[in-house]
Amino acid sequence: MRDFKTYIFDLDGTLLSTLNDLASSTNYALRWAGMPERTIEEVRMFVGNGVKLLMERAIPEGVNNPKFEETYAKFREHYMEHNLDTTRPYDGVPELLHELKRRGKHLAIVSNKFYAATQDLAKHFFPDTIEVAIGERENIRKKPAPDTVLEALRQLNVSKEDAVYIGDSDVDIMTAKNCGLPCISVLWGFRDKDFLIEHGGSLFVEKPIEILSRL
């Protein structure tokens, strides 16, 4: 088993169960705009590439809809106020992070969620374990580009040679590949195993604690 020194985690669907709050804010914005609401399963398949793309998929005609920007702004406004309504860490995640920290590992979050929400959620749920949390922001390409992961490694002042990436989606698999990192795909998130295999996944865990012994 490789002794990794750095663990880079995706956030939504990997560390936190955020789907219900994302769906609630999506439908709040859609109702405000007089547009059809979306089911939980629809929102599940829309997430993974950042909230702007989530809304592009949820809003009829996407960015070509004349009310897109206003509706997207309503989503952001509502989500910043309600992103803790039902969001919780997945069972076993806090224990995993504390054990990794106890072993002296560096821990970071890299998300396509907008920067302020990423920071707020990391500080609220993981103040004693996560050292760096990077979200979507201007002038830096989001995942699957390697930029945010490389920025996290820079802030941690560590080499990617001793790092591993953990996520729940095809975007995460592509991100790890683009960074030259091994990828562990979790099976409790937004995508199932068949979907992940189809998109190149090869290492899987069913429970957070398995990450300690998977590689």
UniProtKB/TrEMBL annotation:
Domain of life where this protein originates: Bacteria
Q: Which is one Gene Ontology cellular component term of this protein?
A: cytosol
What EC designation does it have?
3.1.3.18
Which reaction is the catalytic activity of this chain?
2-phosphoglycolate + H2O = glycolate + phosphate
Q: Which InterPro entries match?
A: HAD-like_hydrolase_sf, HAD-like_sf, HAD-SF_hydro_IA, HAD-SF_hydro_IIIA, HAD_2, HAD_sf, PGP-like_dom2
Q: In which pathway does it act?
A: Organic acid metabolism; glycolate biosynthesis; glycolate from 2-phosphoglycolate: step 1/1
Question: What are this entry's molecular-function GO terms?
Answer: phosphoglycolate phosphatase activity
Single Gene Ontology BP annotation? DNA repair
Write out the similarity annotation.
Belongs to the HAD-like hydrolase superfamily. CbbY/CbbZ/Gph/YieH family.
Protein name per UniProt: phosphoglycolate phosphatase
Q: Which organism is it from?
A: Prevotella jejuni
